[in-house]
Structures are given as C-alpha cells and as structure tokens.
C-alpha cells in the first residue's frame, strides 16, 4: 500500500511539472535585431515633417522616425509637370535591339582566320 502511494505521488509530480521550454519573454522588452515589435510606443518622438511645397516643420510623432513626407496632390500640378512625374514613376519599356546581319560584311577579309 505504501509503495503504491509513493508511486502515485511520483506520477503526480511528473504530471504537474510544466514541460521544459526555453525562457521566452513575450512582451515589448524582448530583444529585437531590426526594430522593436510594438503596436504602441510609450512616448512621442521628434520628427521632421516635409510639406508638399518643401517647407519643414518639427513635430512630435508616436513612432520613432526621422522624416515624414506629405503626399503630393497631382491634380494641383501643371499638366507638363504631372506627365513628367508619371514618366519618372513608370519608365517606358526598353526598346528591342535590332539583330546584326552579315550582309554588309565582306567575308573574304576574314578568310585567313578560318581553320581548314
């Protein structure tokens, strides 16, 4: 009887232990190589905001960034500048090169390089 109690106590201890896993901190303080993996930051960071006219404003932003650029409204641009911007964004496809033909080449001048 005492042996069975000891055996059952050993089984309970084996069952009640958590499985062996590496220590993992699942919070915002864990080590990160590229950036902190957070949804919300605890403070505001100084950021340079660049307006569409080129003027800059220093403000405090919720994410640590250096520069924020406001999007440019293309409907307010003149037609020529708008088309130039579109050409820079979407360049034309490279033109296919013409293949060389051997019609204009005199083959007798290169006859000495041929092996007989």
TrEMBL record:
State the species of origin: Cyanoderma ruficeps
A Gene Ontology molecular function term for this protein is: structural constituent of ribosome
Q: What is this protein called?
A: Mitochondrial ribosomal protein L55
Q: Name one GO biological process term.
A: translation
Gene Ontology cellular-component annotations: mitochondrial large ribosomal subunit
């Amino acid at each position: 009887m005492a042996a069975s109690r000891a055996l059952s106590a050993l089984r309970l201890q084996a069952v009640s232990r958590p499985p062996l896993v590496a220590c993992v901190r699942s919070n915002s303080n864990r080590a990160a190589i590229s950036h902190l993996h957070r949804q919300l930051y605890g403070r505001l960071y100084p950021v340079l905001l660049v307006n569409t006219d080129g003027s800059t404003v220093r403000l405090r932003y919720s994410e640590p960034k250096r520069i924020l650029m406001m999007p440019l409204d293309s409907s307010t641009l003149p037609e020529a500048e708008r088309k130039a911007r579109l050409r820079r964004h979407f360049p034309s496809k490279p033109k296919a090169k013409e293949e060389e033909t051997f019609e204009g080449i005199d083959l007798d001048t290169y006859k000495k390089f041929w092996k007989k």
